[in-house]
User: What shape does this take?
Amino acid sequence: MRVLHILWLRQLKRYFRSRARIIGSLGQPLLFLLALGFGLGPMYKKAGGGSYLQFLAPGVIAMGVLFTAMFSGIEVIWDKQFGFLKETLVAPVSRLAIMVGRTLGGATVATVQGLIVLALSLIIGFRPASLGLFPLAMVFLFLIALLFTALGTALASVLDDMQGFQLIMNFLVMPLFFLSGALFPLNDAPGPLALLARIDPLCYGVDGLRGTLTGASQFPLGLDLAVLLLLTAAFLALGSRLFSRIQI
Amino acid sequence: MGDGTNIIEVENLSKSFGDFKAVDGITFQVKAGEIFAFLGPNGAGKTTTIKMLTTLLNPSGGRIRLDGHDAATDKDAVRRAFGIVFQDASLDDELTAWENMELHAVLYGVPSGELRTRVTEMLRFVDLVDRKDSLVKTFSGGMKRRLEIARGLLHKPKVLFLDEPTVGLDPQTRNHIWDYIQQLKRQEGITVFLTTHYMEEADRVAGRVAIIDHGKIVVQDTPGALKASTETASLEEAFIKLTGHGIRPEEASGGDRMRQMRKLWRR
Assistant: This one.
């Protein structure tokens, strides 16, 4: 327990100490909210979709969480290269504890990042439909964070240096985001696109977040929750399995 | 010298990466309380051996016993028995000296009640108490090394591994570090297993020396006996006589490339 706590705390300290990273990673969500929210807003309204910002904000919040979470997971590669990982791997502690501790830390950090984006979108004009479902929205936020931190950790465990990082960004993170329905409604999307979205884990995260925050969701919230829980458990298992096999 | 029992016993240890035999059937023992220097040219298999001794890498063959525990089956007992200072820094730069020490103490199960006094004591030993709340990224290379030594000793290990502990440090700091290590041996009877490229340092501190080349141990003896048998005046000459004059190829590691990347990434 002490071990989990100290590794969790380490991730938090690292996050809150690098102000530049926090601010830097807020730039992108802010740009999406402002440029797309206001740029496409009038068109979306004309097409009968209502307020685009209302639709977009949960998607951009999920994006903030996705990026931070994946990055936290991928950070394992850095620790691998810059030695700190060795310090934890020679310690008489189970690899599982190390993996879970740092993943929980990364997920907490990503959740905080999501909350900051939520606050930004409130300033810009996003209005949640009800506060009653807010605790459930928090659950969705944390599940998205945990799922993708675990996925990042799993990937980082099998990669040796940052060469693979661009690959992950362009062929995994970006598609995960663009196909998730964060930017456009999926109910009118062409068949193949809608199908791809359905196998995108983030799709259920975005949908759950949108459902709890704005009251409009594509799938039942129970389904979103079930899919996310299942996948999070699966990725955590995969991540800890790959992590415990790391040899340096 | 300690009581003469072997604290490290390595038997026929090998490690292959594909076709390449990095370590090829080495056997040696280290006695409790001695300072043992493991020397060899670049790429000879030193670091691979240390990684296997410290459970970071699984051997392809052979056996390691450290403090009576088998490194293959009883990893945690082995891990508790040693402390290590790695060749490249393994501190978290974004944490303070104190936080790095605290994290180590928790990982090694130092009881909360003792944590404060133990960490303070060790920081005092390496003269870093007054810098305990500074972020490690503000430390010089020498200070980081000292902190790593303090951290490696925090859980009172029986064996301390030092993988090139003085590389890149100025002569003052190098001297300081060897003083710490000799003081430790005298006061705590700790066993030290070290690698270094500075032969005069090995000559000065080591009770016994093993020279490894192409994955095999060429010779192991006291520095004095080595010089006598090779009819050389210094350990460095003995070393060159035994391992040849050729310069060893050294690949740029992934780490070097990454260091560049990180500079770009972290604004």
